[in-house]
Write a structure and sequence with these properties.
Low-confidence stretches: 1-11, 471-496
Number of helices: 17
CATH superfamily: Cytochrome c oxidase-like, subunit I domain
Strand content: under 5%
Helix content: over 70%
Largest sheet: none
CATH architecture: Up-down Bundle
Number of strands: 0
Order of helices and strands: HHHHHHHHHHHHHHHHH
Length: 496
């Protein structure tokens, strides 16, 4: 990583750079659009499963279908959201960003599309396996054992080309976003293979299983979702505001602190469980230390945007990305506070853990990916987004829904924890005690489904080239100052 890249004014864009960017965008178009459309379809399917599972909590007889009971629909929802939506959206962003930052065309896009089909097949098999009753009880590892090798091989086929592009990059500086992308490339095979080997091959029993699952779920958040989300925000924010990241030193500190500390966290969710007390205690301390890189990132982003806050209203990409940055802070602070020894008696093994997971997966990562998709798609399709009002609808309904869901789940979690604080409490009474909050979240799910349906339809129209055509230069560069160079397609669209 080079400080020079971030401390000097952004240079003018030459005609050669314009042509090069156009060639890079053409080379990545097929796999990136494949990942984005597949991800959006899985997102809608996941939110439908989320609605079903939320209804099942208060009305177990809803629909009357055994394979859609809460014990199956809830993990199916979480895994479809993580592996179906989040990973594919993230992979699409990773492919495009790595090509752009390395100034290198993607040489074999068909391989990535083939790998993407295998990934979708693995996710579909895993979700069907969960709904059929063959899933496990380990969080975010509920897929039956036959699914994980498919996902691991598919992921490896994709990221190997990212590493190849990085190795073939034009000589120059390595951007902070590239470091986050590389961290994501290498971290997932490590944590996913390790967790599945211990749980499915060596078959660790007893308390080892939940401990490994807690380690995995924490690291898939902080060593994959967070690096991909931050790589996107570090790229998009400077692009739109037209100035470099405020502090390279702060960005570097945040990166290395995240990589060094996050593998130690996760087990704080098991406070009060049958584990040696020192394990969740150390994990809780690591979770608190993670606030250092979180606050460094938040401050860096704020100082970069300072003076350009009007662009948050004008640019949907910046609006989604900035909201995601706030979600990153909320997720990390919530995990640190709720995992403390004082509150753990009310939060461990309750809905609060679902709230933190949803906050990280949706309020942070998903909203950040929306911002990236709104930025990338016009550049690889050659079309403006069709409707500004649709984008505004998507943002506000998503924002209200995910905030409401997180707040209601937190409230239900505390009520749930209070109801189970005595040794003779049972789950049925705890659910009844939290029923009001659980009913409230159903409406939030309806909002979220509507927003995601509009997003999928809008994206499908763009993929079919139904957007308003623009002159070739306007999608890449305009004859204007650099701070306006890529603003044309990040405004509210043709109808604004």
């Amino acid at each position: 990583m080079s400080q020079e890249d971030h401390s000097q004014p952004l240079p003018d864009i030459s005609p050669e750079d314009i042509l090069q960017r156009a060639a890079i965008d053409r080379s990545t178009r097929l796999p990136v659009l494949f990942f984005f459309t597949s991800a959006a379809a899985w997102l809608l399917a996941a939110t439908l499963l989320g609605l079903v599972s939320s209804i099942k909590l208060v009305a177990p007889g809803f629909l009357g279908i055994d394979w859609l009971n809460y014990g199956r629909s809830q993990p199916a929802f979480l895994n479809a959201l993580l592996y179906g939506w989040a990973f594919q959206a993230g992979l699409g962003v990773m492919v495009w960003m790595m090509a752009r930052l390395c100034r290198t065309e993607l040489k074999n896009p068909i391989t990535l599309v083939v790998a993407g089909h295998f990934w979708n097949a693995g996710v579909a098999a895993g979700v069907i396996g969960i709904l059929s009753g063959y899933g496990t009880a380990m969080k975010w590892l509920e897929f039956p054992s036959f699914a994980w090798p498919i996902l691991l091989v598919s992921y490896s086929m994709i990221v190997v080309w990212l590493v190849v592009m990085f190795g073939a990059r034009r000589k120059g500086h390595v951007f902070i976003s590239q470091w986050y992308l590389l961290a994501a490339c290498f971290s997932f095979p490590w944590i996913y293979l390790t967790a599945n080997l211990f749980l499915n091959v060596f078959q660790q029993s007893g308390v080892a299983g939940p401990a490994i699952a807690a380690w995995y779920s924490n690291n898939v958040l902080f060593l994959w979702l967070v690096p991909v989300g931050l790589a996107s925000s570090y790229f998009i924010i400077p692009k739109i505001v037209g100035k470099p990241i405020h502090s390279y030193q702060m960005a570097s500190l945040a990166f290395w602190a995240l990589v060094a500390v996050s593998p130690w966290a996760g087990a704080q969710a098991l406070i009060g469980g049958p584990l040696p007390a020192w394990i969740p205690t150390i994990a809780g301390g690591a979770q608190v230390l993670l606030l250092v890189p979180v606050l460094a990132v938040a401050l860096n982003h704020y100082l970069t945007v300072r003076g350009s806050h009007k662009l948050v209203e004008q640019s949907p990409s910046l609006r989604f990305t900035f909201f995601g940055s706030i979600g990153y802070v909320i997720t990390s602070v919530s995990a640190a506070v709720l995992g403390s020894l004082t509150l753990s008696r009310f939060t461990s093994f309750s809905f609060t853990q679902d709230a933190v997971a949803f906050c990280g997966l949706y309020m942070f990562f998903t909203m950040t990916m929306f911002g990236a998709i709104y930025f990338i798609v016009p550049r690889i399709t050659g079309c403006e987004w069709i409707s500004g009002p649709r984008i505004r609808f998507h943002f506000w309904w998503s924002a209200y829904a995910c905030i409401a869901l997180c707040v209601l789940l937190l409230a239900a979690g505390f009520s749930h924890g209070a109801a189970t604080d005595t040794w003779d409490s049972d789950m049925e009474n705890a659910i009844i005690f939290s029923k009001g909050y659980l009913i409230g979240q159903i409406l939030a799910w309806v909002f979220l489904i509507a927003a995601n349906g509009v997003f999928l339809h809008h994206l499908a129209l763009m993929v079919c080239n139904r957007g308003r055509k623009a002159g070739a230069p306007t999608l890449i560069h305009q004859p204007a100052p650099y701070d306006q160079a890529e603003l044309v397609i990040t405004t509210e669209g043709a109808e604004a």
